[in-house]
Every structure is written in structure tokens, then in C-alpha cells.
Amino acid sequence: MIYIFRGNIKRVLISLLTNPIFIIGYWIFGHELASICRYGRMNNNLYILLLSIVLLFSIILFTTIKMIKESDHKLKNLTNLKSWKYISIIIFAAITLLYGVNIYKSATNYGGKLAWYIERLKNERSVKFEHNNIYNYGVKGIFEDINKEHTLPQELYMVNNFSLEFNSDGKITSFDTFVYGKNGDGKEESYLITFDKNKSKNITLILNGYAGPTYNVDKLVEPLVKTVSVIPIKQKVSEWNENQYGLVYYGKRNWGYNTNGIINIDEDGKEYSPEVATSEIIGYTVSIFIPGKEKMITPARYNLIGDPNWSKPSTTQNQAKSNEKKNELKNTKEQFYLSKDVGFKLNVTDKALGSTFYSLSKTMDGEKTWTVINNDPFSGTIGSASGIVFLDD
């Protein structure tokens, strides 16, 4: 019985490999699968892939039934052309090798959509967003929701900033930040945290990104949480009577002697507005503003007072200015550096009807030479770039 079963399998395989329709269907299947792995779903390739699968399954089913019913004599008559048998096997192996290599490349080194999909499976997490009203929970609720499923480091630092938008009823509509820190074992962890109510009801976490950690205390997250908890946000925005509001935090900032919009607030929520600054105003500032109207209506810039370490800079003034100048030269709206040598930038190639078209270049030697690595980084999408950020190479 075992011999007969194996014999039937062998007969089916030989019949399939020598069937020109099966070979063509297999070629279409490999081509479309490799295309999806590299470029994703486009130009109806998913439907063609599904049709090719149906075709292959039908041929396999038909051939299996036919082989069971046919005698060995009839089988020999079907496969007596040895030259075609060898040619078909070579064609089948070539198709498998060609598209197998293409699929492998799409899955490694960010060579295609498949690599990004695998990356998301490995590092992307979704967290239920329950504390989604800034009036009731501040921003502390965001981190509480995340900590339910992923324990964050106790001391968190930002890479750039924390930005958030909310409606007049306090419902948070979007926010994003990139934070890092060391866990209890001393291992560094990073989290790209984003939320957009138009895309998902959950918070999205992307783990293990390249944060370029400096552990600069000017970028601590804790002052953000504490300051927002005492700001009378609902009362403040009610003065503006708008539908949408924003909150932004860059860490410790030096406002010089400019008191415009500055509000010092203590841990009990008592506010102090400095009419005249006798010294430079330095603090962990949380700004509340109206998106798009920052120039017309001055944002409310809250500095929490009470902790002496929060009222003085952690670096010298000259060092802070030097770092600020360096960041202005390196990371801008159209370019982003991973290190002093490795950087990327968007080049304007054309403009039309208010839209801008770009190519993407990369340098490996600190701007000495640039190489175009993508002539259409936005895949045909028109508009204007609002920023460029890379987590790693």
C-alpha cells in the first residue's frame, strides 16, 4: 500500500511538471507573488495572484483525479518525451530560483514591502487608548495605557519633541513622540509613539528604533507629565473658543528676556505671569496653542516652578547655543542625519499647482558626496513634505 501511494504521488508530480499550462500558471504565480513582496498591492497584482492560485489548484486536483483513474500504460504514453520532461523540470527550477531570490531580497535589508511588513510584525505594537481626554487625564493617561501592556523605562527622554492635538471637548485626536530610556536591566529601549483617531482607535508603538541617545536632561519627559497635570487646560482654551487645540513640549527651553505668553505655574496650579524679566527665562515649557493661528494668538507657555533643578540649564549657555546651531545646520525640514557622516535629504525636482516633487539622496561622508537613492520617494503622491526622519539605515 505504501509503495502504491508513493507511486501515485510520483506520477502526479511528473504529470504536473510536464504540463505546459501548469508551468505557465506557476510562472504567473511566481511573478505576481514577487511583485507583491517588493511593491505591495498595485495594478491588480493581488487579483492576478489569486487567479493563478485557483488555476494551479484546479490543475493539481484534475491531474490527481486523472492519475488515479489512469493505468501505468496510459501514463507512459503521456510522458514518453524525455527531452520535454527534462526541459520542463529545468524551467520549473529556474522560475523557482528567480522569483525565490527576488522574494528573499524583498524580505531583507528593507528591499521591499515584505521587509517592512516583517519589521512591523517584529516591532510594531498596538495599545488600547482608554485615557483619551486631556482634561481628565492629562498626558499621564497616555503613558499609563502604554504601561499596561509594555513596561516603559522609569526615566524617559525625548529625541525631538512631544506634540498633541485635541478637540474643544478634550478628546485627544492625535499625538506623536519618540522616546527612549534604560529598563530595569540597564538595556536601552526606544519607542516611537503615535496616535491618529482617523487611522486607528489604538496607540501605535514602534520598538527598537535608532534614537541616537544622548540622555540630555533637557529632554526629560517627566516635566511634561507633571506640568500638564496642573495646567487648567479646559479653562485656558475656553478663552479662545475654537474647535481644535494643540500642545507641544520640546523640553527645557531658554526664552531669554521675552515674557510674551510665559506663565509660571506651581504644583498647586497657581499662576505667575512675569511682567518684567530680571533674568533669562529658562524652564521645561509646555505650550498650549491654536493650530495655524500661533502668530495671531500667542500660545500660553507654561513653566512649572518649585523644583530648583528645573529652573536652570543643565548645560552652559554657550554649549546650548552651539548644539542648537549644529541641529539647525544638520536636521531640517528637508534633511535628516543619523550621524555626522550618514544623512538623507529631499531634493526638489519640480513644482506644479502648489505641489512639490522630490528625489531622495544619501551621503555617507558628511555631505562631501550625495547619491540619489530614490527618484520618487513618495510613490507618485503629490503635495509638500512636512519633514523627514529616519530611525536607522
Shape: elongated
Helices and strands, in order, run as HHHHHHEHHEEEEHHEEEEEHEEEE
- β-strand percent reads 15-25%
Q: What is the topology, as strand order, of the major beta sheet? A: 1-5-4-3-2-6-9-10-7-8
Report on the structure:
The chain has a ten-stranded mixed beta sheet. It has three domains: 2-107, no CATH class; 124-327, no CATH class; 331-393, no CATH class. The chain has helices spanning 2-17, 20-39, 45-69, 72-78, 82-107, 113-123, 134-137, 140-149, 222-230, 233-238, 317-330; strands spanning 124-128, 157-167, 172-182, 188-196, 202-207, 244-254, 262-265, 271-272, 282-289, 300-304, 335-337, 343-352, 355-363, 371-374. It starts with a helix and ends in a 19-residue tail after the last strand. The chain has eleven helices and 14 strands. Helix content is 38%, strand content 25%. By secondary structure, it is of the alpha+beta class.
